[in-house]
Each structure stands twice: as C-alpha cells, then as structure tokens.
Specification:
Length: 121
C-alpha cells in the first residue's frame, strides 16, 4: 500500500496552486468551480487543495508542514536559491535537522514547507 494523496484545506487556493506549480513542478490535473484543485507531481502523488469556509479562521497545529525530499545536495541548494530569490519567506535556514540537510519556508497562507536532502551513506 502506498500513500498517494493528501487533502490540504486552504484559504487562497489560487496562490497556493501557483506556489506549488512554480517551485515544485506540480501540475494541475483538476480544478472545480468551487476552487477544489488537484495537483500532481512526477511520481503520481496528488496534493488536493480544498476550499476552507469563508469567514472562518484557518489555523494549522504547531509543527504541521508539507515536506519535499530532493535527490541530491546540489538540488537542495538550487531549490533554496530559487525560493530565496523569489522572495518566499524562509522561516528556518538551511542546516542539519535530524540527520538531514533542510530548510523551511512559508507557502501562501503561512503553510510551513520543508525541503530536505538526506545522504544515503
């Protein structure tokens, strides 16, 4: 059995969609009139962005985040440089965390995103 999708409630789906398309090469495969959007990555993982009720406060629990693993240290540095140059807020600088080289940024809506590379040695 393989985890193949996650549903992420969001306030600004259009901004979040653009963020994941631009910085993580996800592509939209479905977009419903009410805003529900499905993004797909190159491995077939689907990230569903679902509309959160207007007028309600959306607050994720402390530590909640979306994580991406990259294949090499060079790729991590490239993603970090690209995201930094785009002005995406970096909330945890590039450094070691639990044996992986990682950094954290905020996607639109202050959704915490972790990008990591772990050596296979």
């Amino acid at each position: 059995m393989k985890l193949n999708h996650v549903d992420l409630p969001a306030m600004d789906i259009a901004a979040l969609r653009l963020f994941f398309e631009t910085h993580f090469e996800m592509r939209c495969i479905f977009n419903r009139e009410d805003g529900l959007t499905v993004l797909l990555d190159e491995d077939g993982f689907a990230l569903t962005l679902s509309p959160f009720g207007q007028g309600k406060a959306l607050e994720y629990p402390a530590g909640f985040h979306v994580g991406f693993n990259v294949d090499s240290q060079d790729e991590l540095f490239e993603v970090h440089g690209r995201i930094t140059a785009a002005g995406v807020p970096i909330v945890r600088p590039l450094g070691d965390l639990g044996g992986a080289l990682t950094f954290h940024c905020h996607a639109p809506g202050s959704i915490l995103v972790e990008i990591a590379w772990r050596s296979r040695d």
